[in-house]
Specification:
Elements lengths: L1 E2 L3 E10 L2 E11 L5 H12 L5 E6 L5 E7 L4 H15 L7 E7 L8 E9 H13 L3 E7 H12 L9 E7 L4 E7 L4 E7 L3 H5 L3
Parallel strand pairs: 4-8
Antiparallel strand pairs: 1-2, 2-3, 5-7, 6-7, 9-10, 10-11
């Protein structure tokens, strides 16, 4: 489920062996009425009955960056990640949600992973809309990282040697930009408050 500033998008997919199959999809305006009610109507029109969904958040305040630490015990690793998150937060700590993911490592190799810091008000707004529409959010992701994951699942995994790619999602008010190489090598992730609306109006 994509809850945008001007449009709502829903997609239902399934996976059979190594194929991702599009089952149903729909797009509707997010303007003019209660967003949760509009989303509920879109789900009905699209014929989507599943309630477990994934949502994504985008904002210029979103921080997504890779980290790398030498081998260390789990408690020390958690402290290091929390310290890095605190250094990245420009607003009050209580206003930001922090999550991280460590990539599998072999033996004594350094611990590599991703750190994500998201404004709680932005996250909570998306969660509230989804729940009011009768949905159960089971995954909440950063929009740019969701785009990156989708690319590597659908296309990148077919490459014999991972290539550096630039991915852009230009929304009405926000643009997500990702530069990455391979499924676990993030180079840059940024959300800009510049989208199609500003570009078409010449700002």
């Amino acid at each position: 489920v994509d809850i945008g500033s001007t449009a709502l998008k829903v997609v239902e997919i399934s996976q059979e062996e190594d194929k991702v199959i599009l089952r149903r999809c729909g797009v509707a305006s997010a303007e003019g009425e209660d967003t949760a009610e509009l989303l509920k109507k879109l789900l009905d029109l699209s014929g989507i009955t599943t309630t477990n969904v994934a949502i994504a958040v985008s904002s210029s305040d979103v921080i997504a960056k890779p980290f790398e630490y030498p081998p260390m015990p789990g408690k020390e690793l958690l402290k290091a990640i929390r310290l890095e998150a605190e250094q990245e937060v420009t607003h009050g700590k209580s206003d930001m949600a922090v999550d991280w993911h460590a990539f599998p490592s072999n033996g004594g190799e350094a611990t590599r992973g991703l750190l994500a810091v998201v404004p709680k008000n932005t996250m909570n707004r998306h969660l509230e809309i989804a729940k009011k529409a009768g949905l159960r959010p089971v995954i909440a992701d950063v929009a740019g990282l969701a785009l990156w994951n989708a690319y590597w699942t659908l296309l990148g995994s077919k490459e014999t040697a991972p290539k550096t790619v630039l991915l852009m999602n230009v929304g009405a008010k926000t643009t997500n930009l990702i530069i990455a190489k391979g499924p676990d090598t993030l180079i840059l992730s940024r959300d800009f408050n510049l989208g199609a609306k500003a570009l078409t109006e010449g700002h």
